[in-house]
Amino acid sequence: MDWLTILTRGFWCGCAALGFGVLFNAPTRTLLPTWICGCVAGLIKFSGLSPAVGLSVIVSSFLASLGASSIGIPLCKWRNVPLIVIAIPSIIPLVPGAFAYRAMMGLMKLTRHIPQNYSNMIADTVYNGVMALFIVVAITLGLLIAVMVTGLRPLKGPA
What's the pLDDT tens digit per position in 102-149? Predict the structure, then answer.
């Protein structure tokens, strides 16, 4: 994966974060900080996944969430909004939709009939479900660690 691809994916993660900010009816003054945090999250995640670095998707998602939250903390103070307004839309693009989808599809296939490759299908379904769970936990830990280190109360509103 070259750097242009990483930059492009980071840009589109920022656009996805911006879309979630609009979807959640975030104030207009928070849309640029949301886009910035989403870009940072995408850049960190896809840089970690590049063959040059070679991190797993779990570690990359954790670092991306930690980075986006760390950037989001001064931005939320600057815009005088709770951290949740900027951080949550910016880390939603990190959510492992493909793993969760494959796990659910595997569960649905397993309930219909017993296929010939039953043990392989169970193994794939469990793998995808566990990966989705671990990535969600890693994203959550990245957000919580950034909040705990700074001592910021995440739901504190404007003064």
Answer: 999 999 988 887 778 888 999 999 999 999 999 999 999 999 999 888
Please tell me the distance from the alpha carbon of residue 113 to that of residue 66, in angstroms, as a whole number. 42
Q: Where are the domains of the chain?
A: 3-94+138-150
First to last CA, the chain: 45
- 141 contacts: CB under 8 Å, gap ≥ 6: 62, 65
For residue 104, count CB atoms less than 10 angstroms from its CB and return exposed for 0-12, middle for 13-18, buried for 19 or more.
middle
pTM: 0.88
Over residues 32-52, the pLDDT tens digits come to: 999 999 999 999 999 999 999
Q: Is the pLDDT of residue 152 over 90?
A: no
Average pLDDT score over residue span 65-74: 94
Long-range CB contact pairs, 104-108, < 8 A, 24+: none
Indicate if the alpha-carbon torsion angle 72, 148, 88, 1 is positive or negative. positive
Maximum distance among all Cα pairs of the chain, rounded to whole angstroms = 63
* CB contact at 8 A, 93 and 13: yes
Q: Which two tokens stand for residue 112?
A: 């219909």
Q: Is 43 exposed, middle or buried (0-12, 13-18, 19+ CB in 10 A)?
A: buried
